[in-house]
What does this fold into?
Amino acid sequence: MNSRHLVDPELLPLLDFLPPLDLNDATLPAVRAAKWPIAGNPVPAGAVTRHVRRVPGPRGAPEGGLVIYAPSEARGARPCVLYIHGGGYVAGHAGELEPVHRSLALTADCVIVSVEYRLAPETRFPGAIEDCYAALKWILANDELLNIDAARVGVMGESAGGGLAAALALLCRDRGEHRLAFQQLIYPMLDDRTGARADPHPFAGEFVWTADNNAFGWASLLGVAPGSPEVSCYAAAARAHDLTGLPPAFISTGALDLFVDEDIEYAQRLVRAGVPVELHVYAGAYHGFDLFVPSSAVARAANHDSLVALRRALHGSA
It folds into this structure.
């Protein structure tokens, strides 16, 4: 595989700077300890508050952590985004996107609640998705404390966080206890069978997040080989047979992202199930491009499209 000639020119320098990610049991501690170059739009001092809370976890599980960002300006109840971080199900933490979340809380005029879910392989499925469900349950039960509108609570995540967000939408629909207003899925990790098929994409997945890394992430979460039969749709949302009744979806991905095919296919299936969907595919973009090279034109376009869609979902207008 050699897709370098397809990479957006503004995204090329990072490939020479960023060391290849080789994810396995031996390298996982170093990957978790690494500091990734994440930047957000500047936010005036004091414009956004940040609070950390411990909340009840799923039955029989330890408490979970939430990082809460809210605009400081007093006003009525705001909409809320439950944000689920990425990291291939094996890495990442709730506070790692603080610059992004501070900016997003202000520009989208909402409360951002980032959930600290348990990671694999120490915690297998269904630990992470149940942690996210418990966080949503706490948010909706504490809408007055958070000063949020419980009717305008949606879920958002990137990569593995996008996969968990899609799975959470399925779980909420099927349990019938809570209702999400929308699902915002940024290059979501939806299908454990990607990379396990005999006909891999000839150009996608060469950079940042490869098929080998993907296999490690899925195997760590599932405890079985990716592509095994009987994988739950609450682990891999693409496994769901019925997508009807899900909340409106925004899905974005890069044309060179390993997840491009599964993301497009999921969007198509949502459309066929009668779910409102907005889909964006960005030419020349690899996994994480919007976070790693936010100054590039393609990243600015992706972040603008996501913000416009999010404001529409939260407030009814862009």
About this structure: DSSP finds ten helices and eight strands in the chain. The first strand starts at residue 48 and ends at 55. The chain has one domain: 4-315.
